[in-house]
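lol forgot to send this yesterday, sorry. C-alpha cells for the thing we talked abt
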C-alpha cells in the first residue's frame, strides 16, 4: 500500500464534504420555491479492486468515497396519492361552485326571490277580493304578476349566463391543458437526453412534476414513469403525453344549453376524436354543463309552465269588469302556449280586463256583478298542498340540500387532501433545521478531511526529507 494513496482518500473526502455543502446550500436557497424537491448526496464507499494483478496481493483499505450522485427525495406512492386527491378536490370544488351559482340565480331566501314575488301576488289577490271595483287594486295585481314573470325570466337568464361562463371556463382550461402537455413532452425529451449523457435532471424533473400536478388538478391526469426518466401522462386511460409526443385536447359538443340533450359538451382528443373521461376541474365543470345546470333549467321551465297554466285556468273561470269571460294571463310572448322560463310573459295589460268576478252576467240577467269571488279563488291557490308555492319550495329545498351536501363533501375532501400534501411535504419539502444539521455535519467532515491531508503531508515530509539522516 502506498502512503500516497491516503492523499487520494482524503481528496475524495474533501470532495464529498464540499458536494454535500453545495447541495445543502441549494436546498436552503430553494426553501420557498414552489414544487422544489429537496436533494441528497448519495455517498458510496469506494473499495480497492476485487481482481488483483498477477503476482500482486493487496489488503489495502482505501479508495475513499464517491459522491457523484445527487438524487431528489420523493415518495412515488405519496406522489400518486397526491395526484388523485388533488383531482378529487378540484372536481368537488367545481361542482360546489356550480351549485352556489345556481343558488345565486334563484336568490332564495330574499326579497328579490321568486318566493317573495309569489307572496306579493297572493297578497294583492287577497286585497283585490275585498275591493274588486278598485282600479288601483286591479293594477297592483297585474303589476305584481308582471314582476313575477320578470323574476322567472331573470332567473332563467342567470342560469343561461352561468352555463355560457362555465363553457368558456372549460374552453380556457383546455388551452392550459394543451400548453402543459406540450411542455411536459418537451421536458421528457430534455430529461431523456440528459439522463443518457449522465447529466443531472433534478430541476427539470421538478418542473415536469409541477406540470403533472397542474394537469391532475385540471383534468385528473395520472403520471406513469418509465425507465429512461420519462413519464407518460394519461387521462381516464387515454394517453395525453407519450414520451416526447403530446396529444391535443378540444372541447366538442353544443355551444348552447338547449343542445345539451342531443350533443352534450365533452373533451375529445384532436386529432382522433376520442372522448376523454376527465377528472379534476374539467369533470366538475362538464357535470355542471351536462347535468346540474340543465336540470335546474328544466325544473324552472316546469314551474313557469305550471304557473302559466294555473293562472290562465283560474283567470278563465272568472269575469272582468265588462262582464266578459277572463282571457289568457300568461303566454310565451308571441301569443302561443310554448311557455318556458325564458319567455314567460304577462299578456293582459288592461286592469279592467282582469277577471276578479266569479259571477256570470248571464245568470243574473246580464248585469255585471261587482264581486271578487274569482280573485279570492285565485288567492286560495296559494293554500293548495300541491300548488305553485309547494312546487317551488320543493325545488328550492332540493337545491339547498344538494348544495349543502356538495359543500360538506368538499370540506371533507380538503381535509384529506391537506393531510396527503403534508405527508408529501414531510418527505420532499425542505426542512431548515435538518439542513442546518447537515451543513454542520459536512462542515466538520470537510475540516477532518483537511486535517487528514495535513497529517499525511507531515508523514510524507518525514519519510522523504529525514529518512537516512541518522549516523551522518
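and heres what i got for the seq, position by position
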Amino acid at each position: 500500500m502506498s502512503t500516497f494513496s491516503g492523499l487520494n482518500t482524503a481528496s475524495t473526502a474533501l470532495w464529498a464534504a464540499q458536494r454535500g455543502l453545495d447541495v445543502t446550500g441549494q436546498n436552503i436557497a430553494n426553501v420557498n420555491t414552489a414544487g422544489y424537491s429537496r436533494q441528497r448526496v448519495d455517498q458510496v464507499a469506494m473499495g480497492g479492486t476485487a481482481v488483483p494483478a498477477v503476482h500482486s496481493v493487496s489488503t489495502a483499505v482505501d479508495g475513499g468515497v464517491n459522491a457523484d450522485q445527487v438524487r431528489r427525495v420523493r415518495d412515488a406512492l405519496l406522489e400518486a396519492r397526491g395526484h388523485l386527491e388533488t383531482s378529487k378536490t378540484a372536481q368537488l370544488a367545481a361542482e360546489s361552485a356550480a351549485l352556489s351559482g345556481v343558488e345565486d340565480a334563484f336568490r332564495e331566501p330574499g326579497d328579490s326571490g321568486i318566493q317573495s314575488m309569489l307572496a306579493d301576488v297572493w297578497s294583492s289577490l287577497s286585497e283585490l277580493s275585498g275591493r274588486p271595483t278598485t282600479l288601483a287594486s286591479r293594477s297592483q295585481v297585474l303589476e305584481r304578476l308582471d314582476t313575477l314573470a320578470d323574476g322567472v325570466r331573470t332567473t332563467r337568464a342567470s342560469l343561461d349566463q352561468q352555463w355560457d361562463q362555465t363553457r368558456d371556463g372549460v374552453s380556457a382550461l383546455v388551452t392550459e391543458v394543451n400548453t402543459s402537455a406540450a411542455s411536459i413532452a418537451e421536458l421528457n425529451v430534455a430529461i431523456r437526453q440528459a439522463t443518457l449523457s449522465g447529466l443531472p435532471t433534478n430541476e427539470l424533473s421538478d418542473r415536469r412534476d409541477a406540470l403533472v400536478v397542474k394537469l391532475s388538478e385540471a383534468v385528473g391526469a395520472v403520471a406513469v414513469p418509465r425507465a429512461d426518466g420519462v413519464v407518460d401522462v394519461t387521462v381516464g386511460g387515454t394517453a395525453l403525453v407519450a414520451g416526447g409526443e403530446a396529444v391535443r385536447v378540444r372541447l366538442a359538443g353544443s355551444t348552447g344549453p338547449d343542445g345539451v340533450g342531443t350533443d352534450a359538451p365533452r373533451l375529445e382528443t384532436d386529432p382522433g376524436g376520442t372522448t376523454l373521461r376527465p377528472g379534476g376541474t374539467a369533470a366538475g365543470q362538464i357535470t355542471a354543463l351536462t347535468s346540474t345546470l340543465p336540470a335546474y333549467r328544466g325544473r324552472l321551465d316546469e314551474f313557469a309552465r305550471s304557473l302559466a297554466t294555473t293562472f290562465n285556468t283560474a283567470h278563465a273561470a272568472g269575469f272582468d269588469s265588462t262582464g266578459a269571460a277572463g282571457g289568457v294571463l300568461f303566454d310565451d310572448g308571441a301569443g302561443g302556449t310554448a311557455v318556458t322560463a325564458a319567455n314567460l310573459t304577462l299578456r293582459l295589460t288592461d286592469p279592467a280586463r282582469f277577471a276578479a268576478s266569479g259571477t256570470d252576467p248571464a245568470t243574473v240577467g246580464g248585469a255585471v256583478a261587482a264581486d271578487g269571488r274569482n280573485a279570492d279563488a285565485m288567492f286560495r291557490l296559494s293554500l293548495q298542498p300541491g300548488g305553485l308555492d309547494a312546487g317551488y319550495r320543493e325545488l328550492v329545498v332540493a337545491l339547498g340540500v344538494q348544495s349543502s351536501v356538495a359543500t360538506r363533501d368538499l370540506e371533507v375532501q380538503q381535509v384529506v387532501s391537506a393531510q396527503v400534501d403534508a405527508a408529501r411535504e414531510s418527505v420532499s419539502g425542505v426542512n431548515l433545521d435538518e439542513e442546518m444539521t447537515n451543513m454542520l455535519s459536512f462542515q466538520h467532515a470537510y475540516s477532518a478531511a483537511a486535517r487528514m491531508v495535513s497529517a499525511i503531508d507531515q508523514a510524507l515530509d518525514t519519510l522523504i526529507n529525514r529518512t537516512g539522516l541518522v549516523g551522518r
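The CA atoms of residues 106 and 251 lie 29 Å apart. anyway ping me if u want another try
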